[in-house]
Amino acid sequence: MKGKTIKDILSSxxxxxxxxxxxxxxxxxxxxxxxxxxxxxxSTINSIQVVVDFASINESVMEGITVGAALLVRGxxxxxxxxxxxxxxxxxxVIILGLAxxxxxPIQPKKxxxxxxxxxxxxxxxxxxxxxxxxxxxxxxxxIHNYFNNNGFCNIHTPIITASDAEGAGEMFRVTTLSDxxxxxxxxxxxxxxxxFFGRPTNLTVSGQLEAELAALAxxxxxxxxxxxxxxxxxxxxxxxxxxxxxxxxxxxxLNDNMDLAEEMLKYVINYVLENCKDDLDxxxxxxxxxxxxxxxxxxxxxxxxxLQFVANNDFVRLTYTEAIEILKNSNPNKKKKFDYxxxxxxxxxxxxxxxxxVEKHFKKPVILIDYPKDIxxxxxxxxxxxxxxxxxxxxxxxxxxxxxGSQREERLDILLQKMHxxxxxxxxxxxxxxxxxxxxxxxxxxxxxxxxxxxxVTGMTNIRDVIPxxxxxxxxxF
RNA sequence: UCCUCCUUAGCUCAGUUGGUUAGAGCAUCUGACUGUUAAUCAGAGGGUCCUAAGUUCAAGUCUUAGAGGAGGAGCCA
Length: 479
Hints:
Blueprint: H1 6-10, E1 17-30, E2 34-40, E3 48-53, H2 59-64, E4 70-79, E5 87-98, H3 114-119, H4 128-150, E6 154-155, E7 161-162, E8 174-175, E9 202-204, H5 209-219, E10 221-229, E11 242-251, H6 255-276, H7 278-291, H8 304-313, E12 317-320, H9 321-329, H10 332-335, H11 352-363, E13 367-373, E14 389-397, E15 401-408, H12 413-422, H13 431-438, E16 444-450, H14 451-459
Parallel strand pairs: 3-5, 6-10, 12-13
Antiparallel strand pairs: 1-2, 1-4, 2-3, 4-5, 7-9, 8-9, 10-11, 11-16, 13-14, 14-15, 15-16
Helix pairs in contact: 4-6, 4-7, 6-8
The protein binds one RNA strand through strand 1, strand 2, helix 3, strand 11 and strand 15.
């Protein structure tokens, strides 16, 4: 971008200097002789005030200065006479770079509903809210890479197209170049995938974990940060068909090391955002407060920045599934049958109402649940000696639910093979995974962190479709 | 996929028991105003009441079906 950004200029200590700013008109006010333009270039949530004297600027130019128009302004940076900003630009030249028809431009200087902006996702970047969200999104991405880099991790790009469908993490999107009206058929009359691009059925990845394990068992500490695809018909505020996932995998780590890593990493990222996104967080905090005005006091969330500081400065609660079941069994909502799913016995899968009770009512802080019954978890999780539970861990966050799912992996060849057999995982196809247990197997652990769920927590937004630029979900792939 | 709710002006929404020409705020346009802060003041324009069928003398309002959206649930990150 040419010249100084508005962020740079607003933090200037000099005055009466010549400046050149480029940006988009957020608002325009005026009186008989003078117009005030709020100009924003995306470098910061704050707009710069441009003051235009009608006498010095051509009338046709003045007519083009409407909300949404792109301008180049040359002028002098001066102390503002108005109260709400330190500096403003006294313009002597305004060039319209791009007009915006005021009658047709959908974004107005007023509050828009998130639903409306979601339908105008191509233009919502130009609002304060989404500007703040996507600047923060970048900082969170950067902080994650920073954390792993600082700690000796190696970033691995695991495949996006995969032939393996054994992860069991959900429905997959098929990838094919075969004709959809007239595919080649085999002798049995079924689609002949031998003629497909890869010579076999392929899908978009639902997880890079299995491949990350291969890398970890040589490079030691690795992580993935890539797109992930689930073809589930999920219509909720916390699911996407295309989302980004971070999956660290560490050789020689046991479950305790795994919990330490996840907790330390999350706290690092939150602190990084607190230190580097203050203006945007302040704005989102006020926005949330505004949004929740209509709610009863007990239903309102903790102030955004306080909430982030609280999580960064307090230890997460760690407890076993068995302990959680005991707490839930004896809880008021369970006794009074307020839960839709009453907890009766050990072995029950926890519903989101139970997770919310533990995190939001009982402990009031993030909770790491470990040692789940083996029957409700994946084949690769390490069996405990009790033969009933596995070394799984789920991190539950207030307002979001499960943000991390991970485990210590089963490194013992015989037990892994037995588990795969029990759960109908095709051993032949998975030879490459099994090989790691055959040759120099060691204990290792890892987890998957849902990037957009972390974004929900950090921004205080409540719908996952608002923290990714162009959300993909059932019946929607617009833009 | 299931449950609940919603769909009226560019946006956010009101519209009583079914009853004349469907309203408001903001936005837009026009004008006023000596520096505004989502400026203010005055005026104007702007409607396929989501779509289709039905009930009725009469439907924005009632019924049925469909489409789209939101929230919750399940699946999960």
